Amino acid sequence: MYEARHWESAYRDFNADNVPKLLIQLQDDLARSRRREAAWISIIVHLVLIILIWNEARIETLLGKWLPRRAVVVVS
């Protein structure tokens, strides 16, 4: 992009007044992307929970083969 000998040419048109605006814009973009990521994770977790609740009987019969059920005796 820039020659190694003339690296300072990258900063010739640099405007120090725009730095705060750029930082604020980057922070806003980062906050927006975090919010979007949190929303997608929330949607996926809720869908998985709904699917598990919906198929509770099927899951219980499948796990019943591997998980033995025993009677519980309460001693008082």
In short:
The protein is an all-alpha fold.
Structure description:
By secondary structure, the protein is mainly α. The chain has one domain (7-66). Helices cover 62% and strands 0% of the residues. It contains two helices and no strands. The mean pLDDT is 82.
Q: What ranges have pLDDT less than 50 throughout 5 or more consecutive residues?
A: none
Total tally of structural domains: 1
Task: Figure out the total of helices.
Answer: 2
- Largest pleated sheet: none
Q: First CA to last CA: what distance?
A: 81 Å
What is the 3D form? rod-shaped
Q: Quote the average pLDDT.
A: 82
Number of strands: 0
Order of helices and strands: HH
In oligomeric terms, what are we looking at?
single chain
Question: Which range does the strand content fall in?
Answer: under 5%
Helix content bin: 55-70%
Structural class: mainly alpha
Roughly how many Å is the radius of gyration? 29 Å
Features of the shown structure:
rod-shaped; single chain; 76 residues; mainly alpha
Question: Which helices and strands appear, and what pairs or packs with what?
Answer:
Layout: H1 19-54, H2 56-66
